[in-house]
Amino acid sequence: xxxxxxxxxxxxxxxxxxxxxxxxxxxxxxxxxxxxxxxxxxxxxxxxxxxxxxxxxxxxxxxxxxxxxxxxxxxxxxxxxxxxxxxxxxxxxxxxxxxxxxxxxxxxxxxxxxxxxxxxxxxxxxxxxxxxxxxxxxxxxxxxxxxxxxxxxxxxxxxxxxxxxxxxxxxxxxxxxxxxxxxxxxxxxxxxxxxxxxxxxxxxxxxxxxxxxxxxxxxxxxxxxxxxxxxxxxxxxxxxxxxxxxxxxxxxxxxxxxxxxxxxxxxxxxxxxxxxxxxxxxxxxxxxxxxxxxxxxxxxxxxxxxxxxxx
Length: 311
Ligand SMILES: C[C@@](CO)(OP(=O)(O)O)[C@H](O)COP(=O)(O)OP(=O)(O)OC[C@H]1O[C@@H](n2ccc(N)nc2=O)[C@H](O)[C@@H]1O
Ligand SMILES: Nc1ncnc2c1ncn2[C@@H]1O[C@H](COP(=O)(O)OP(=O)(O)O)[C@@H](O)[C@H]1O
Hints:
CATH architecture of the largest domain: 2-Layer Sandwich
Oligomer: single chain
Bound molecules: 4-diphosphocytidyl-2-C-methyl-D-erythritol 2-phosphate, adenosine-5'-diphosphate
Shape: globular
């Protein structure tokens, strides 16, 4: 008797870039980056159920996203199907908490969760390294969604090195109605920096970010937050200046645009301080939603296997 799952539920987190350094564009259109990711407690849940072919339904945020082969979750399932040669299919039910096109890698979390869910459902049995290789084919941020916690990303952001982090950090997120396009923000960055192909120094992280994470002290971390894409995001969406100013007035330790934006992440001392910062930011009416999250949290993980027993 072999226990075969008929359904698998996987959860993967969104992220904040605590530090993001960007170099000049490469011939393939990507930019070399050096970043420190932190996975935070906004989650994408994927339930993969045995079915014919690959199909997708979306709940929560992003209900108007396409459910065809352009969706990152579908692309992940198709890639695993093709790589493993399986004849099995899956229906994917995706529940999204992470804002769409918010600079928090929700689509990447969907792809990572789907890879893991389908791997379990189909018994493909790939190692974490093999999954990470497929992940990087799907997008620069996808490998981190598998790893979670706190990690350094280099190359296109897809080469992941976990880093030590002490304690829990409390963040207030200001979520905007309308997302920003990642390629557009990188293009704006190139214009602002007057960067051409392979022009300028390779991006480097300051070791002080890693030391701050290790200290567990949010005040120390607040002094090391930084994002090279912030100016470009502000250029494209000047209202984000009001969000950063509101976070400052609310007494946040520091605030920055996450990744390519437009979500702004404000760091608080502890939970009570985060509640107070969130209250002031809500009253300032600078965002569609103000959310409280914590980090670091784990990467993609199986929450449940549903089994049918077959002889
Ligand atoms: C900026 C960051 C920071 O973590 O995150 P988000 O703000 O998107 O969440 C990432 O680098 C985004 O990663 P991700 O969103 O997975 O990018 P991809 O889908 O692979 O690439 C989309 C496009 O963004 C640009 N891109 C992305 C990554 C990178 N290192 N250099 C780039 O220039 C390229 O124009 C690429 O065609
Ligand atoms: N499952 C998905 N969830 C979100 N966006 C997706 C998904 N599949 C494809 N996309 C496309 O990717 C774009 C950016 O995705 P997302 O990961 O939400 O933002 P960001 O890159 O800013 O972190 C979306 O605007 C959408 O066009």
